[in-house]
Amino acid sequence: MTYSLAGKVALVTGASRGLGRADALALARAGADVVITDILLESENNEEVAETYGPISQVMQSAGVVYAEKTAEEIRNMGRRSMAIRMDVTDRKQVEEVFRLVKEEMGGIHILVNNAGTLDHVSQIEHQNDAFWERDLKVNLTGAYNTTKAVWPIMKEQKWGRIINMASVAGTLGGFGQASYSTTKAGILGFTKSMALEGARYNITVNAIVPGVINTEAFQMINPKMKERMIQRTAFKRPGEPEDIANAICFLASDHARYITGIELNVSGGIELFTF
């Protein structure tokens, strides 16, 4: 089964690496033109931005694991249109301006993948960092609200839209020491269902992907013993690959999924099952 997204314009947030980059490339291979957005771009001095958003951003910046513009170039080499734009999903005015620009330059926005997120705040409740709690709410939850609100009138006008939100098994199962992350990802599921109800009358579907243990750059930074414990929780006893998430996104973005909305699709290797 192939998913033809020819003639569609997709915008992916947090697409400079990891799942977002894989999603963008897969959407382009399926025929879509793709806009890459991220807080980090290779051609800009991102040190202050990375410091603002926490340890993971700082590590990725210092290690040079930022591929926003490279991803856009790869997509253009496929014969698709693409551009990389710096966008902070917590900055509502900036989000509105970027979406206005994309509509003008690309002719519309048909697919929105809300991938941008933080996942570096890990500590038990008495040691949770209050500032990071607020940051996680703003990025992971309010960020998806901001982008969805900005794209909504565009999709209504088109009478066609696909919004795919990135949740997590931490939002469905909870996560020890992950109060802020789990809370925001559980919130994404409620947001997804509400938007699915509002979008149906305009031919806009809204769904959530629930990833489990995925072999991204961030996963590689985890303590090896903890990584092995996480892997052993899955039914397959191995991590998933970013392409596994990207393939699910391409399906939900396609007309093959036109009667699917409001779901939480586990792409988790069975980590939510009773494995032992």
Automatic annotation (TrEMBL):
Keywords: Oxidoreductase
Molecular-function annotations in GO: oxidoreductase activity
Record-level GO BP terms: bile acid metabolic process
Domain of life according to the entry: Bacteria
InterPro entries: NAD(P)-bd_dom_sf, Sc_DH/Rdtase_CS, SDR, SDR_fam
Family of the protein in this entry: Belongs to the short-chain dehydrogenases/reductases (SDR) family.
This protein's name: Beta-ketoacyl-ACP reductase
The organism of origin for this protein: Polycladomyces abyssicola
